[in-house]
Amino acid sequence: MGAVETGAGAAKRIVVKIGSALLVDDATGAIRQDWLDALADDVAALKAQDREVLIVSSGSIAAGRRLLGLSRGALKLEEKQAAAATGQIRLAHAYQTALARRGVTVAQILVSPADTEERRRHLNARNTILQLCRLGAVPVINENDTVATAEIRYGDNDRLAARVATMVSADLLVLLSDIDGLYSADPRRDPTARHIPEVPAITPEILAMAGDVALSSEQGGLSTGGMKTKLDAARIAVAGGCAMAIAKGWDAHALSAFAAGGARATWFRPQTEPLTARKRWIAGALKPIGAITVDAGAAAALARGKSLLPAGALGLEGAFERGDPVRILGPDGAPLAKGLAAYSAEDAARILGRKTTEIGEILGYVGRAELVHADDLVLDGAPGRGARAGRAAVAPDGAESLE
To answer: Which residues contact 89 (CB under 8 A, 6 or more apart)?
Structure first.
């Protein structure tokens, strides 16, 4: 499998969104196991290239409704929740079985909008998902349909996938769909419709191409989203520095064909690298609610792109919590940087001036070695400076998020 290009180099962290129509047979409600086995081959091949792969999977309602004897028509919210609760078990087992044959461990993550939009829940979800990736697992993510109400649901997994992609600072989001990208008109109705290989900006003209009709599957229309939701997803993804592509996923090994550059797709490319997007967000979108004063040695280390360690901290102000934005001040009180606290003010006060090896004994648990990690820190007047590992985490449609 060739390199997956994002326009800025090979993608190392890839989020793949799977639509219901691809995964579940509409006629029987059964998992399309042969297709899923082929996808598992593709995922394993990407991981063999030292890439991290995350899957956002639809299909729980489609997989569960027939087991409960629910009709093929529109379902009430409580019926969707019941179907999702049943279908999630089937989906998790199907993914586990398919990927286990390739020696890949699967982890199931159920999220709600609040998990990606509220600051501390965003941080906790991100840390869990990235820890799973570091341990070699493939997180399979879906909306927590079983408990969400209509008012607090994403309603489609395209936008959820984009939120996840920005939350985990992915390089690339691939929406595997039943169509190979955006067209100038509905290609099912207009034979002159042109395929759009790349969208430099989501303009009103581009939005008009999407229309209002949900995409329907060649196998009966299990999709709940449409091209409009995919453009909404693209807006979120590229604002967070993540490239996005819409590709046809119907055939076996669709992900492999896309990755090798042999499949037609529509690309949406960010105007800025993830690092810059993320640093700009920290620098300009968050108001500090506390401060940490550091000594001269720590100030010099920060200027070199290093993290702030407890040993270099002299004092703090404010009642901040883990994940809150804080101002970092020099020994003379001059502002040096802004960042996201790895500890609450209460815990930070207990480890000020102490070695990182003492944190576990002092606090009773082993937390991060840094008070503020370089990935979560922006020097004053320099949004793009700091460690390269930091990546995008923005809330382009107004909701608050945190990396």
So the answer is: none
**Closest C-alpha to 160, from 57, 78, 254, 80:** 57
SS3 102: coil
Helix count and strand count (H, E) for the chain: 14, 15
Sorting pLDDT into bands at 50, 70 and 90, what band is 367?
Answer: confident
Determine the residue type at 140. V
- According to DSSP, the β-strands at 52-57 and 13-18 are parallel
Measured in degrees and rounded to the nearest 5, phi and psi for residue 288 equal -60, 140
* pLDDT tens for each residue of 223-280: 445 888 899 999 888 888 899 999 999 999 999 999 988 889 999 998 766 666 667 6
C-alpha span between 268 and 241 (Å, rounded): 11
Name the pTM for this structure: 0.72
Contact 384, 275 (CB under 8 A): yes
Structure tokens at 396: 């382009």
- Other CB atoms within 10 A of residue 100 CB: 12
263's CB contacts (< 8 A; 6+ apart) are 180, 247, 248, 254, 257
Kindly tell me the sign of the dihedral angle through the C-alpha atoms of 50, 51, 56, 57: negative
